Amino acid sequence: MTQKIRFYKYADQSDIILNLDINNNESLPDINLTSNGFSFEEKPSTPFKIDFKLAVNSDIFKLVVPENAIEDEDDFQYFVSCISPLSRKRQTIELFKSKDLNLTEFKNFEGNILIDPKEWFGSISFHANVVRKKTRKNEVSGFLTDKYSIIGNSHEHVVYIEPLEKFDGSEIEMDDGPIPQADALYQLIQSNPPKIMINEDAPEFTLKMLRYKGAKNDRRSLIRDTLFAPILVDVWEQLARAGIFKMLPEADTGDYVAETSELPHPYRTIVEHVAKKIYSDSDDPSKALVEELEEDPKTVINEKLHQAVQAIGGLSKYYEKCAKPYWRD
Questions:
Q1: How many domains is the chain partitioned into structurally?
Q2: 3 state DSSP class of 291
Q3: Does an H or E element contain 290, and which?
Q4: Which of 5, 13, 52, 319 is the most exposed place for a label (fewest CB within 10 A)?
Q5: pLDDT grade, residue 51 (50/70/90)?
Q6: 8 belongs to a structural domain
Q7: Alpha carbon 261 to chain centroid distance?
């Protein structure tokens, strides 16, 4: 059996230009430009509006319709698709003709969306679609003539409601203080940056060991680092597991697994680091992770993750370094 692959006339993205403008005011944090949009320096506490300006080259209506057909911008609708995997939210905003005078070949459309930070998390991606309003009676090969056919879209813009930041494992802070489980040794606080809270009521010599700041290669430092290594591995696993769960859709929603790029700080870099370790032979480890999470998330979370964080935490290295002086024979 053969499968036909059809190619259709489709507008070029350079002819469908979407621009975003965030209505800034004194109550909003500062906003920085990124390579593909904007990032707040900290998550806003109040709702804010994003204005959309869409410019569509009128020449596309000659390209995407059959020869001798007469159609213009009024035969199509214009939408902005808003997607936030971490928020489990999707929304479509219809744009309408702008009242601004335009003497160029571009037709202008506009609209807006109100973003409530209590309902949206992580980042939101936006792209515009040009959609056919009605079906043409006679289908013509090579053209999208059905109602609701998308005949072109814009490049994607991303607004990071929670700051887009880089993460270094060395940023994990450590302190001692009270923790909920009185007889546990430590608690991971998933803050920004993450913090390991050592139980202030832990045994006396355990606290002395963990607080020890002697020479890098002396015996006490060697023992301290070896005993601390499993804690660090556990911390990596907790953070990575939390990040991966943020990527997974809620049960029975039909949503897709989120990309690692949609994760907030510090989970994005942690999960991408884990992906590189698990899928070291892949040209795109993050994509490989998403694909396996779609097929078999349990294997990733319950089997592969635990081994990957051991490698990232250098567990074998610390054990060997500690054991080598005493088990030579």
A1: 2
A2: helix
A3: helix 285-295
A4: 5
A5: very high
A6: no
A7: 3
